[in-house]
Structures are given as structure tokens and as C-alpha cells.
Automatic annotation (TrEMBL):
Pfam families per the UniProt record, alphabetical: YceI
Species: Chitinophaga rupis
Protein name as it appears in the record: Polyisoprenoid-binding protein YceI
Domain Lipid/polyisoprenoid-binding YceI-like: 5-170
Length: 178
């Protein structure tokens, strides 16, 4: 059995997010700071990646003042508390084919998450993508949640948000752990 480590290339990896509310949705990006994935005989077996919550961008709001206000709100304690918790971490706990299970830590709170991924391995380059659905209330993000506040009407924000994770990684130089 040959174990290979692939290091995530931050500049070629990112997370696209979508948050929905009664009246529509917002979308943007979050940078991936670092991470690595382990393969045994070309099969994903483990790994982790770190998202930089201070890098959250909003793509659908073009007015600079409104965009800055919304970005500040996402960074606040109502959502990611980015000053106190600048990183969110996903650790893979098991892999069964294309199905990945792991622990997602946001704001020092960890919960299990599972999703299906598309993984492509070609020589020393690996690409992977998958959609992770996260219940924000599990991580203390209760702002305008119908689970905690009544009669929100058209200002309600849905609890689930989607993360489309796109990763590119390259084989580590120190590989071949046999």
C-alpha cells in the first residue's frame, strides 16, 4: 500500500457560498487557507482543510457601501465572529467511495457533516469538489432564524447555507509513506 499526501493549493482552491432568505439569496466566496489530503492506492482516506473566515466576500451586492456593511455583518458575532474565530476547519473522519464524512468546526463548535464529492486524481494533481449543506444554528448563528425567533415574516433567513468546495492539491515532495 502506498500512501500519498497532497497539499492544497490555496490560490487554486476556494469555497463558493449561498445563503437564502425568504426574499431571495446572497452568494460569495471564502478562501481556503491550507490543508492536505491523504490517498492510499489512489483512494482518498483522510485529510483536512482550513477556511479563512476573514476572507468572506459577497459577490451579488455591487454597491460598495452596502457590500461593506453586509461583509461586516457576516464577520460579526451574529454570524462568523471572524475576529475571534478567523478559521473554520473540516477534518475528514471517513470516506466510502465518493461519500465523505467529517467534523466541521466553526466558532469553536464542532459537528459532523457528510456529503458526496467528485474526486479526480491525475498524476501529481488532485481536484475535488462537493456541496456541503450547513445548519448555521448549530454553530451559534441564530440571527433571524425561524427556529429561535417568531413572526420574522419576510426578514427570515433560512438556517441552512451551502458551501460549494473546490480544491486543487499537488503531491507533496516528501511523499511515499509505505
Amino acid at each position: 500500500m502506498e500512501t500519498k499526501k497532497f497539499n492544497i493549493v490555496s490560490t487554486q482552491s476556494n469555497i463558493d457560498w449561498v445563503g437564502r432568505k425568504v426574499t431571495g439569496a446572497h452568494n460569495g466566496t471564502i478562501g481556503i487557507k491550507e490543508g492536505s489530503l491523504l490517498f492510499d492506492n489512489d483512494r482518498l482516506t483522510g485529510g483536512r482543510f482550513v477556511a479563512d473566515t476573514t476572507s468572506i466576500k459577497i459577490l451579488d451586492i455591487t454597491d460598495p457601501a452596502t457590500n461593506a456593511q453586509f461583509a461586516g455583518h457576516l464577520a460579526s458575532d451574529d454570524f462568523f465572529s471572524s475576529a475571534q474565530y478567523p478559521e473554520a476547519i473540516f477534518n475528514i473522519t471517513s470516506v466510502n467511495g465518493a461519500h465523505i464524512e467529517g467534523d466541521l468546526t466553526i466558532k469553536n463548535s464542532t459537528h459532523p457533516i457528510s456529503f458526496d464529492a467528485q474526486i479526480n486524481l491525475s498524476g501529481d494533481v488532485m481536484t475535488a469538489s462537493g456541496i456541503i449543506v450547513v445548519d448555521r444554528t448549530q454553530y451559534g448563528m441564530k440571527f433571524r432564524s425561524g427556529s429561535f425567533f417568531k413572526d420574522l415574516g419576510d426578514i427570515l433567513i433560512y438556517n441552512d447555507f451551502e458551501l460549494q468546495v473546490n480544491i486543487t492539491a499537488t503531491a507533496a515532495k516528501e511523499n511515499v509513506l509505505a
